[in-house]
Amino acid sequence: MGLLDIYAGPPAPSDPLGTADRWDLCIDANRQWRWRRFARNNVQVGASHQGYWHRDDCVRNARRNGYTSEPPTLSDALAERMYPSSDPLGKNDTWGFYQDPSGDWRWWRNARNNERVGASSEGYRSHAYCVENAVRHGYVAP
Question: If 44 and its partner were Cys, which of 6, 70, 98, 122 is the partner (CB 3.0–4.6 Å)?
Fold first, then answer.
């Protein structure tokens, strides 16, 4: 099953934080786990920026972007004990905003170790819409 390229417009105005979003976890054509996030109007508003060999890793990345449907697992608890300084929800992540060559706005998100852990799944015509989408994924304006 491959991922669909669905146009994702600005977040639904009635739910700017995406509390009613629907999440899909699926296996892509490379047999890796990915997540997708849809607003109430079925417009895709987010997707994992990479594939994961293990479902638990995919779920952990989705949680970093606001997924709350599954409670933490034993492997999550073990990871926290092994790496107590880890930041599973990304509260200390670094965010960036930029314009791509076509003039659309995009965002990226890096963990403390500078690993890319998120990025916009599409470009936005305005900086404001781009920031709205980043807020949906955990961005807090300084």
Answer: 6
Half-sphere exposure of 104 (CA within 13 A, CB side): 10
Domain boundaries, the chain: 22-136
Instruction: Determine whether 31 is exposed, middle or buried from the number of CB atoms within 10 Å of its CB (0-12, 13-18, 19+).
Output: exposed
Query: Which two structure tokens, joined as six digits, stand for 91?
Result: 């509260």
Report the CATH number of the 22-136 domain.
2.30.29.80
Distance CA(35)–CA(27), nearest Å, equals 9
**Where does the pLDDT of residue 142 fall: very low under 50, low under 70, confident under 90, or very high at 90 and above?**
confident
Confidence band of 4 (pLDDT split at 50, 70, 90):
very low
